[in-house]
Amino acid sequence: MAKGLDELLDEVESKFCRPDPFCLGKVERSGGCSGGGGILSNDWNRAEAKENLRVNILKLSLKVIVLQIINDHVTSGYQEQLLISTETFKKEDDLDSLINEIFEEPNFNKKPFKLKPKSSGNTSVRACIQDLGKSCSPVYLGGSTVPCGVGTTTSQRACDHLRCISCDFWVVSYNDYMWDKSCDYLFFRNNMPEFHKLKIKLVKKKGTRAYACQCSWRTIEELTDLQTDHQLRWICGKH
């Protein structure tokens, strides 16, 4: 590509950038006594002009490419997906400034751009976002009378987002039910988490809460710290 660009520049130079014979002769005559310094100066000027021509052609090519991309988006019916309006890009001054920024050296001393909130009044929305991702500490289990939510030392709530790290199942719970004594590992292995299959082993009992994953099950009546049951591999899956 670079070779083709050089050939194009040579052709443009030969057609449109020929030096004025009168000026060239004047330079050669004035430099004859200084050992050809005028000719060297003229060669340097021609090289500089050629480099400027190269940059201008690159800028023009970028401008054509940008306009072509915009035209493709507009004609294909995706105007709403453009993050910047086509009218802005079609302004020649904006295109020139954009291309000039590409050729400028990067300035690493600029401060990063910070987004400002559109409104400071949406406190409820921010509060909901902050609540996302909270974990119970400690993790509590509880009967049906114990409220569910994020458990803390000051707010003792039963975690309703439990996950088993042994079978990788979410823990289900049923208020006012207890597990029948005949439950075994294979029953939960084959029927979790379908309630219509599990209910044949659920016994109605007010105040209790039946918990189960695919490998473990418990019937809880009172607030219980999960750490006290060392056989359970349940953790808070975050709220």
Report on the structure:
This protein has 239 residues and is an alpha+beta fold. 42% of the residues lie in helices and 14% in strands. It is built from 8 helices and 7 strands; from the N terminus they run ααααααβββααββββ. The protein has helices at residues 2-16, 21-30, 37-75, 86-90, 92-103, 123-131, 185-191, 195-198; strands spanning 140-141, 162-164, 172-179, 202-212, 217-220, 224-225, 234-236. The strands form 3 sheets. It has a 3-stranded antiparallel β-sheet, with no helix packed on it. A two-stranded antiparallel ribbon has the order 1-6. Helix 3 (37-75) packs across helix 5. The radius of gyration is 38 Å and the shape is rod-shaped. It starts with a helix and ends with a strand.
Mean pLDDT: 74
**Structural class by sheet pairing and helices:** alpha+beta
Instruction: Please state how the strands of the largest beta sheet are arranged side by side.
Output: 3-4-5
Order of helices and strands: HHHHHHEEEHHEEEE
Quickly count the helices.
Answer: 8
Low-confidence stretches: 22-36, 78-85
Give the distance, in angstroms, between the N- and C-terminal Cα atoms.
57 Å
Number of distinct beta strands:
7
Helix content: 40-55%
Strand fraction: 5-15%
Shape: rod-shaped
The gyration radius over C-alpha positions equals: 38 Å
Major sheet size, sense and barrel closure:
3 strands, antiparallel
